[in-house]
Specification:
about 35% helix, 13 helices, alpha/beta, single chain, about 425 residues
Length: about 425
């Protein structure tokens, strides 16, 4: 089914100083950033947004046309960012409480990027940090290559510089619970179903199978959010029919001279993992953070680690966990293999092991077991049955961040 072929979610963040504008215009811009709900007409379209928090401005654009959901999931899960930022939670054009368009062609990625430029002018921002999640990452990258002079820092969450879904269907079929979710969607609901109701049912069925490492850990949070959020199918339908597979800014990535933080879950959708590596390889000042035991919403599954790194990056501190250029390895995956002819005994010399399928940096720089001789090695194992693994992993992340310049970080998962 075309409706089920691409189920992703999106978000966009921006932060930065206000331009100094005296007189009535400056007062108007100051009022636009006061706490509470606001409406602003940007490029002829009425946009709704909510202001919360304190500190430098952060503009959040949720998934919008990429999945049809409003800002609710972000406003309810990104609250820690409000401790150090004034966060603007935006419903993009056609979504939630913002204005619907008569012509759906106005829901293109290019229009959303130009709305960002309109918002920048409305708030009086000169340069600002910008971040985007999934489809919002498309918008963020498009804005950054179009207006690099206005972007101070760029954060790309679970996204890609090109829109390639060639392996999506095969990957979905390999996911536990996906076949059952598809089957439940094929069953007709009781009574008539609106387009909004249909799309909400799609997300309630498929998100647990394709967007999360272990949905059981976040079901109590995400279930009510999916019930409360406003669904707007028109922008999503237009994107599905007209833009899926068309986005590609790879030829323009050389213009991204600002610092870039790239984040993906180690169990993320293929587009995001592949895109994270491609973006890291193509940008001069980038860090790559692969969040362990998480999927397409790493700040929900591993909030302390993910949000902590985003706040650290936006603050300008260099002591992060992300793999930098040049820098240490953050994440790698190893293959299980029959390396012992018989069961080893304590004291036996371990055979050589080479880590494979490296996310970052290139495989040629990955350490072998012999290469770790003489170094302190911390091994942590986790699985879906380990109830305490989250606390251990996040505490380990905090400790590692303090010793960033001394340690080489290698996260290994058995596949």
């Amino acid at each position: 089914m075309k409706l089920l072929s691409t189920v992703i979610c999106f978000g966009l963040l921006a932060a930065g100083p206000l331009a100094s504008v005296p007189g009535p215009r400056g007062q108007e811009r100051a009022r636009a950033l006061e706490p509470g709900e606001h409406q602003a007409t940007i490029r002829g379209v009425r946009l709704w947004y909510l202001v919360r928090g304190q500190g430098p401005v952060l503009v959040l654009q949720p998934g919008g046309a990429g999945w049809g959901g409003d800002v609710t999931p972000y406003a309810e899960t990104l609250r820690p960012l409000e401790e150090s930022n004034t966060v603007i939670y935006l419903d993009p054009r056609g979504i939630g409480r913002s204005e619907r368009l008569q012509d759906p062609a106005g829901y293109s990625i290019y229009d959303y990027a130009e709305d960002l430029e309109g918002l920048r002018r409305h708030f009086g921002l000169e340069r600002f940090a910008l971040a985007g999640h999934s489809h919002g990452g498309f918008v963020a990258l498009l804005y950054a290559v179009t207006y690099p002079q206005h972007v101070d820092r760029l954060v790309i969450l679970d996204s890609s510089p090109n829109d390639d879904w060639s392996d999506w269907d095969a990957w979905c079929k390999s996911r536990p619970g996906y076949a059952e979710a598809q089957a439940s969607l094929e069953r007709s609901p009781d009574g008539a179903e609106t387009p909004e109701g249909r799309l909400r049912r799609v997300y309630k069925s498929l998100l647990p199978a394709v967007h999360f490492h272990d949905y059981r850990e976040v079901a109590a949070l995400m279930g009510p959010i999916l019930e409360r959020m406003i669904i707007s199918p028109e922008p999503y339908d237009w994107w599905q029919k007209n833009e899926v597979g068309e986005f590609d800014v790879r030829p323009k990535l050389a213009s991204l001279t600002m610092p870039v933080l790239i984040v993906a879950g180690d169990g993320d959708i293929p587009l995001a993992l592949r895109g994270a590596t491609a973006l890291h390889d193509s940008t001069r000042r980038s860090e790559l953070l692969v969040v362990p035991a998480s999927g397409h919403w790493p700040w929900i599954e591993r909030p302390q680690l993910t949000l902590g790194e985003i706040r650290r990056f936006l603050s300008g501190r260099p002591d992060g966990l992300g793999a930098q250029k040049p820098g240490s390895v953050l994440a790698a995956f190893s293959k299980a293999s029959p390396i012992f002819a018989q069961k080893p005994k304590v004291g036996d010399l371990a055979p050589e092991i080479t880590l494979e399928s490296v996310v970052s940096p290139p495989a040629a720089s990955m350490p072998t077991l012999a290469g770790l001789r003489g170094k302190v090695v911390v091994l942590e194992f986790w699985g879906v049955w380990c109830g305490h693994r989250t606390a251990i992993q996040e505490q380990l992340g905090l400790d590692l961040r303090k010793e960033r310049r001394k340690l080489q970080v290698v996260v290994v998962r058995k596949t």
